[in-house]
Amino acid sequence: MNRSPDCDIVLTAPMEAVQKYKFDDFEADLKAAELRRKGTRLKMQMQPFMVLIALLERPHEVISREELRQRLWPEDTFVDFDHGLNTAMVKLRDVLGDSASNPKYVETIAKRGYRFLGEVVTVIDQPKLIQPRLDPLKPGQAKADLPKKTDQLQPALPIPESVPTPPAADGVQRAGMEEAESKRKSWLGVPEPELPRASRPTVRVLFSLCQIMYLSFYLSALFRLDRLSQSADTTWSRAGHVVFVVYLVSALLGIAARLYLTTATAFDYHLLAEKYRVLFPALLALDMIWALSPLLIANRIGSGLALGAVVALNYMPYVQRMLMQMMVRRA
Asked: Which of 166, 214, 222, 290 is deepest in the core (most CB within 10 A)?
């Protein structure tokens, strides 16, 4: 409370708003929703950042997993909470360079939650007070008469430079949901309501079967290289040798990619969706090449069946992409 020396007008101090949290070389900026280290912005997704803010608000206290769930996901959101929180914690520790077995910042409290171990400095966004302008005392006017006059005054109250209407955490949470939604739509492109309804195990099995199908293509081609070369020469004539080399190299690369996706799906790797997003352009090109492979055996299965298989295989990359989005939704 600030009191003017010449009158009884009371100025109420504005609500203090937390602007930043600092610990060691790190600085978490709530306004920008960014984490910096020595002034350099670090790449961090919104959910790990929200977990970090929740821990920084109450350092050295145990934050329960249920409290973090309420912080990260609304009540009506259907997610695999344990998997999602574990993924966010792994990403947070990765950015901080921390270890779960030998923690420096984030300690796991078994069956309870997490605790931030570092020393946190809170930076408050506190605006300057704007003092009211009062008329000078007239001759013969006593101080006791001043309140009667000043009752008619309307001093300008201080306006905080930045006092968020909702709590900072709610703003960060809303930004996180918007970022996650825009990221999903940017590369997956299928609106949530249009996705088929299926359990996560079913989706994982279907995605794995797609990878096994492509593996069978690659291994069949490599098993009889002489027949592959002959089919390429027959179908593409002069360009047959180039086509043969393209299918040979793409089969070798495809085996490595499909084995990775199959094992990552089998072990339910928590960063699979993120890795798949990076691999998708290369996988799309690879799948488009092998979508034309039925033409190599058109003389044995018939042109009509070969063209039908080409059309079906052209659709397969987008089927896999939709299955991955279904896995992300269920995560």
From this structure: 214
Whether residue 165 is contained in a domain is answered as no
Same-domain pairing of 7 and 146: yes
Residues 236, 117, single domain; the answer is no
* CA count, 13 A, side-chain hemisphere, 248: 14
**Are residue 107 and residue 34 in the same domain, yes or no?**
yes
Within a domain: 159: no
Residues 41 and 109 in one domain: yes
Asked if 326 and 200 sit in the same domain, the reply is yes
Over the stretch 293-306, which tens digit does the pLDDT of each residue have?
Answer: 999 988 888 989 99
pLDDT for 236? 86
**Would you put residue 281 in left (φ > 0), alpha (ψ -120 to 50) or beta?**
alpha
Residue count of the chain: 331
Residues 297 and 314 placed together within one structural domain of the fold: yes
Is the pLDDT at 326 greater than 50, yes or no?
A: yes
Count CB-CB contacts under 10 A for residue 293.
21
More confident of the two residues 128 and 277: 277
Question: Could you tell me the end-to-end alpha-carbon distance of the chain, in angstroms, rounded to an integer?
Answer: 49
Task: Tell me the C-alpha distance between 261 and 208, whole Å.
Answer: 8
The tally of domains found in the chain comes to 3
Check whether 205 has a pLDDT greater than 50.
yes
The residues near 156 (Cβ < 8 Å, ≥ 6 apart) are 130, 132
C-alpha to C-alpha distance for 71 and 127, rounded to whole angstroms: 28
